[in-house]
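User: Structure please.
Assistant: Input sequence and predicted structure:
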Amino acid sequence: MVTSSLTFGFSMGSPYLYIGLYLGIVALLWILSPTIPRLDRDGPVLIYRSGTFLRVVNLLGKRLSCVMPKISYVMIGVAIFFSFSVSLSLLLSSLDLLLNPLAEPVLKLVLPGMEIAGERIRFVNWIVPISIVLFVHEASHGITALANRVKLRSAGLILIAVIPGAFVEPEEKELKKRTLKQRLSIYSAGSFGNILLALMLISILPLMYVPKSNGILVNSVVLGSPASGSYESPYVEELFFLGSPEEPFLERGEVITEVNGIKVYSFETFLSVLGELRPGDYLVIKDHLGITKEFVLSRHPNSERAYLGISIVPLGEITPFRMSLEFIAALWVNPLTSYAKVPWWLLDLVKWTIVLNYGIGLINLYPVKPLDGGLMLWDSTEKKFKFLRVLVIVMTLVIIFSHVQHIVRRLLP
């Protein structure tokens, strides 16, 4: 089982410094590989077998051997669900790439310096989460293999050209003797471990910061309302609230700290100020960046009251259990909306660990060899439904072609 650092769902920038540094390290490894013990070269692949990693996995296997068989059906079910979801997502994205010149690919190679979710990933924020991803993924494979009485021959790190990865190597003869259920549980364990760790970190992420009590968070903006400015689009409520250069506008994730000179500490304060105004009156809003915006209120669609056209979340009343993933995403690009209980560098590491565990865990479930999803599909269709293999191969060719033509189209003037 091999883990690779491909993921999907994010945009890529052009970070020459970090990429140059990374490629320099890779080139140095290739040059020095003949002199490094236990580092083997096989064509475009560097393989480092680690006795320490193998001993750690064997130790964990002894401790957790009674747990893994009990959750085997859960691991297999989760893997099948996400394997189908990833396949459908990549196929639809690839068709969009072929038909829409402005479309962006969802499949990306994650290397230090690339832009993910609007933020450039630093080397430290890449190397630490990637190490965690690879360890969790391969350790999960190894532990599940040992729980099903399959010995491990070796374990270590792998470098396919410039793509880092890791591996555990089970005894093939013993693996083939196990039932289909046991083999599928071993294949699915790696991605299941990554996804489970991502969900666990998401659950504790809100505990690492406290939302600022001074202010209210704009949760959504109604299309055509005073708050949306003069830019009208059916996508305003769901994506971005872009307003025209001439008109003020509010956007989701923005924090209102003051209205008409009165500091906003609660939902009630905001409503009391708004309640004293009438349609046609002016409302002056100051956000968390100190930017002042002036709005002319309209009449509420269902009453005679003044109307701005936003839904709000009072930051002081948010608890970790109420905090949604949308709010976490807003904090990702707007850390000014919260006080961190831990250093921001630690919070950044946790966030990148979540993203890379989830993304890499999912992409390894794509049903083509040598990925885990491919091993599951090929093993499951050994006697029946072999046509599924053909469909996956065709789908993979479409995905590769769409991404290649996208790259070529971007490079051509």
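DSSP finds eleven helices and 19 strands in the chain.
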